[in-house]
Amino acid sequence: MLFEAATFVAASLIHCGVMIAGYEHQKARIAEGVIAIVLLIGAAFSWIQPTWTRQAGLTAQGFALLGTLVGVFTIIVGVGPRTLPDVAYHLAIIVVLVFGLIFAKRI
After folding, report:
1. Range of the domain at 54
2. Contact predicate 10/17, CB 8 Å
3. Of 79, 71, 76, which is closest to residue 35 (Cα–Cα)?
4. pLDDT tens string 47-96
5. Backbone dihedral region for residue 17 (phi beyond 0: left; psi -120 to 50: alpha; all else: beta)
């Protein structure tokens, strides 16, 4: 979850214009920041209370996947950013989140 959170932090910073100029998008920045925070909270809960690892992983990654699918929907309808890096990131992080959910379910 820390890796997933880090990628959402990076995506949020990119949409802020901090890491790369030209990809600013306020709504994407906010959504990615919220998803990163949820993943970090999930990781913290799993570290603080190991018996919560499974539930924290399923909840945080499930939220992240749902948010990412909303992002894909906004790309499809033309509301969200539609650059090649945005599309590629969404597709890649969906795969990572699905594998994370499968892993969390098996714990």
Report:
1. 2-106
2. no
3. 71
4. 999 999 999 999 999 999 999 999 999 999 999 889 999 999 999 999 99
5. left
Closest CA to 67 of 99, 29, 24: 29
- As separate numbers, helices (DSSP H) first and strands (DSSP E) second, the chain gives 4, 0
The total of structural domains in the chain comes to: 1
Which are the contacts of 25, defined by CB distance < 8 A and separation ≥ 6? 15, 80, 81
Burial of 10 per CB tally in 10 Å (0-12, 13-18, 19+)? middle
* List of E strands, the chain: none
pTM of the model: 0.94
Longest dimension (CA), the chain: 43
